[in-house]
Batch of 3 targets.
Target 1
Amino acid sequence: MILGIALGIPIGLVTGLVALLLLMTAISNRGLDVKSVLAITAELLAIPTFWFGGPWVTSRVLEDVDWSAMLNGYLPAVAVVFCGFLVVPTWTLSMTLARKVGGSS
């Protein structure tokens, strides 16, 4: 479990920062067209793949680790750290969008 927490915190930090930067890019209003919005969306959807490392992590890097025991600490650590980065920006973005859709300023 300790290994899961120790691995989950940096993975949550990295992916939280990446998601935050992608959201900042998306709302910067600098020439976003359909192609760039789709690229940002695809990158956001790829974050869970990074969380679980793909098959190379489980088959080569951490092949001797008991994954069932590690996931009990890893998943909550990743979730807490990742969500900690995105709570305020997501709330602000939601409120801004609600004001634009609602027509009030």
Note: The mean pLDDT is 80.
Target 2
Amino acid sequence: DVIVDMTLDAFSAARDESSVGYQDNRPKSELVVLATTDGRTGDRVEPGNDVGEEGRVSSLGYGPEGFVFVYDSFGAETYSQSLWRSTNGRSWEQVGSDDEPNQGPIVGGDDAYFSFRYGRRAGVARSTDGVNWTTVYETDDAGSYFNTLAADEMGVVAIGQHNEGSVAPQLTISKDGRTMDFDYELGLVTVTEDASGDVLTTIDFDVFELDPPDQFQIDEDTGTVTITDTDGTVLMVITEAEAEASSQETEYVEDYSIPTPALAFSPDGTEWFTVTTSGLEVAWAQGAAVGKDAIVIVGESAGGYAAYGSSSETTVILSDGSTAGFATATTLAVPGDFAPEAQQTYVWVGRRR
């Protein structure tokens, strides 16, 4: 029996009407900062009126200049971040620079703060004052990312996962005797003279940066991108239609496999090493602690992740008794109860030699 019969327009109108006033009446969060000296009782302190009425603390750490936290403010139509610092946890000041970390957490070492930095590749940023940050380490490829960061007397450790992921091939546009190649993986743009093969310019392009390089001049009114050399000489002018047509011809290469650990270590926060993870069965890190002579990592094994697809051909028997083959070249790791074996929790200890 038909219970409700209405047009899509009527349904959309009813939905819109029901959401009127949602922004004004929905529950709102409130920042609470407590300071304590004995761990038993705490006093609530107010960082300042500029913190914002609604948001969350995304990063909190302690280092040489005291406590530092990053506050994410959520307005009705805006999102912003602010950096706050305190030497005693009670009196706070808003500080900031163009190099503020936009990814947590923040951890403190003997003489510096550390935080994740995500650009074209995952990395670690270092700051001596909690305000000005410098990237001190980046992964070798775009298939690794970090989710756990710890620091103490022995050094700094960052752990996460490595997966082949999705890699886009070069975006290529040829016109007027010249060819532009955009290598997404390397973050490089080159313009080459077709007749001679000479490379006219090479541009380091970070797609995660808000502003394009100076050699990319974007005209939003005309929908064109002008590429110049370092002296400002125009090399190519690309239209939005040309870029769209070229992107349609590219295909992403996907190879989602069961992840392996990605681990980086630094004894002093400036010189970094990629750590050999032989014997480290942790695929999903849940926590890490750094001591005087050892690092302890806790996480789950890769056994609870089922692999779908393979590089072989799958044969399917159809209803009429005939068979059909489907060749697959993609492996996708998906968590779930249907996994071939249960996840196990591992504790991995690395000691100083």
Note: The helical segments are 8-18, 22-25, 240-249.
Target 3
Amino acid sequence: MRTFASRVSMIGLSLALVALGSACQGEETDDETAPADTSATAMSGGETVSSGIQPGVSSTYSVAINNPMPHAMVVKVEYTGGGETELGTVPAGSEQAFTVAASAGETVTLVATDEAGTHSPSTTMVLPTGQSETSWTIE
């Protein structure tokens, strides 16, 4: 047997659901509605970094970075013509893969800096054509 209070409760719940549906109406959840000039470019520890990739103009390139140092190194990529993006941290004595917003044939500079900021080895490379990945060992 339903009581008056349970009927009022059901009516209140129904009204709340209708209001929620109205508030969400017109909201698009489609990935195609995202701005065309942003895309995920790096994942480090579950963290996604975003940059200005333009579909049809740029692509992504995987770079595996080996850190034989006894301390962690923070890695960033510097682009020819300006701009840079921090990719993340490579723990001591390990390797980490990062996705760089760049196309094969493009020249980029990778810079690794220890957390104390005492040294910053770097390498400038032309991303190899015909493949989508390369590697660098911090020295």
Note: The first helix runs from residue 4 to 24.
